[in-house]
Amino acid sequence: MYIFNVFLMQQTILIIGACGQIGTELTLLLREQHGADAVIASDIRQGNDGLMDSGPFEILDATDYDALEEVVAYYGVDTVYLMAAMLSATAEKFPERAWDLNMNSLFNVLNLGKEKKVDRIFWPSSIAVFGPNTPKTKTPQHTIMEPSTVYGISKQSGERWCEYYFEKYGVDVRSIRYPGLVSWKTMPGGGTTDYAVEIYHEALSKGSYDCFLDSDTELPMMFMEDAIRATLTLMDTASEHIKIRSSYNLAAMSFTPSDIVKSIQKKLPDFTVSYTSDSRQKIADSWPNSIDDSFARNDWGWAPEYDLERTTKEMLQNLR
Ligand code: AKB
Fold it and tell me: Which is the catalytic residue, given 81, 151, 209, 248?
């Protein structure tokens, strides 16, 4: 099945939220593929040296439509990756700010698409769109959602708006429901799945970790390299193969804190862990244990490459 098109060859790309956990790695890889000058990084703050030194950068508030429009016109941007968002745990502390950022940044980018100022948009959704009434195991693409967090509500609403803009205005918007992401280049911030990154850092720096989730809390997770590959594959797939314009379920592995501890202990036998769950436990309990991603597999050939053991190997090797 030939599912890719030549669109990717001529792109000028804007990454909004380029200094975050996904944005940093996405920017660096897109710059390798398209050339540094074809990929404009932007955020409300500067990023790490690797990102800042690798190509053009603009300070940009994604909730400011005029500023966004100006950057798009100045660089001749045709493709936007909107990675800026307030994640689940922080959003519970600042519900209105989270709603403002997560929704208005999306409206701004979708409206650029509606006005034909950009051709293609990527917007990340999350497993947070699911809630306590959702089937927990192998959660289907289409099912009861009813998210119970501000972040989840904003992502579910965002999905509906993406589909609406596609159906009504022909906006070419594509999206993935990311699971928790494990990466070593940039720390996550404000999420419920952040423990799965912190634990590797502290295993190496302290030899111990106090986990904010209970030992048996199973969540869908993914190594960053898989997540970036999925994102770029979806964006390079010819439009007629994208059957879902809300957001695709995506899966790689599911594990508990206790599984990750055992996996680290195979490499660092003296590593110890304690468990002190906090308000993030309730959020984690409302999310699925595992995800059915057969639509992504069938429509655009998705297949993960990293399991927990391979993830642990990569994390410890690179953080060392
Ligand atoms: C979070 O924990 O909030 C995020 C997510 C699952 O979307 N990592």
Answer: 151
